[in-house]
């Protein structure tokens, strides 16, 4: 096994296409427009890595009927993806998206998600310590379920560092803020899909992003990636700060999954011997390549290589 | 085993309470307002019978993840309910009801339901022939999935009659119309929740109901129950026709499940030795008793006995 992917709050993503979806009425979903796929950022990263032929173990919490469906669907992904979840009593999250292509609405119904008991969390920490010794890289990505402390990313990283493993994070500000009080990852990528907040402050100007990135490097991260206005990134290492831009126009409606592709491609690139800025460039190229089409499939290697030529890397500090 | 309950198109009923449910928005369902229960009329009858201490086998088609959840939930009902489903590849029906108690809306999302292959249907007919020999009574209730002929009730009744079993039906007009071309049940109850149609014709006047009921008796049924204006019933036997009415006001919002209670209580009453009009009276009393409260639980035996005094049985022919 090369990678341990941690998804503390996985989900079953369900998609119903109902044209003319109406309140207070009986709506029928045709079978061919009724889909379910494994979800949650850590799950997505594990699935993408296994598609890039990287043997990956996926861990976190699953429970109930929804958890069983999730694990069964993950088993279908292929032999390179292994799951080692801690089983809980509550139901795993179920995220229903009702797409109406007639009225152009997207109505979402998400379950509240499970509550993780102290006991289950302790069990998970022990499981993590066993699994982490089997791999080269640890990636922790996505939300934290109720009952698990926001500092969990830091606690897990402390354990991983005991065994000298490389650690990647992608998470929202609240998780990062609490977790870096305990430990810093090697690669820190902010998930800014819902807010532009860094360490509790809303950022606006480019300079603010540059300073924030430098600050994380000073405090212990080796590579920091802060997305800026959705399609740009500020990337910092000990050597400096760079701004990444695409050389062509990005279709914003195809952005879904590009963050997970970014992280997965960085890990792929790292395992192939690239470091620091080159690793980030590879991840960014993959994320940009992902915006050229719809769907969950990761971009082909050739497409990533080609896209490397279509991105601009400017030193800003 | 005493009863074989047939539910050709079972469902998993899911209930989400979302106050302020809004289109084109992310809606969260709190865990305690997210429920799932086995559904489909034949399933409901089997569950009710087992709660009345009658050992019951439930058969029909189940498939996929939803089918697995349904069977697991049915296993929790108790030791008196046994399932013997034919497993299919398609997913069992999933019926989602989104209740908004703030805006007083009920938005339903139903899956299209499975398609039954010829092979699965043939397998089911063989299974049915084995199971039917183990019981005294057969009850067939509810819709017919795609791929199964509307005459299926008739085909199954032919097999049951070969072994001299008593047969109960509750179904909609299209199924009854096609099925009685092949065989008549002993007890025929019309499901008129969605239309007042009998043998393809919309009925209005009491006389029309009386004549329709007599016609079914003439052609082979021993007991016929046609509901009239939701809360009344016309009941026919070889001896005559009666009109059943409640002596008190019925809360229409509590009618859910009263049809299944009616059928179950008739079977209960038959197994205890009652016949014909008395059996129908017992079923009607149970259905009326069921309208006194909300929820899926069947009425207690004492409540049914008490309600027998609160119904009016008038001879109309």
Automatic annotation (TrEMBL), chains A, B:
Transmembrane segments: none annotated. Keywords: ATP-binding, Kinase, Nucleotide-binding, Transferase. Belongs to the carbohydrate kinase PfkB family. One of its GO terms (cellular component) is cytosol. Gene3D superfamilies: 3.40.1190.20. The keyword Lipoprotein does not apply. SUPFAM superfamilies: Ribokinase-like. This is Ribokinase. The lineage of its organism: Bacteria, Thermotogati, Thermotogota, Thermotogae, Thermotogales. Residues 35-295 form the Carbohydrate kinase PfkB domain. It comes from the Bacteria. It comes from Fervidobacterium thailandense. GO terms for molecular function: ATP binding; phosphofructokinase activity.
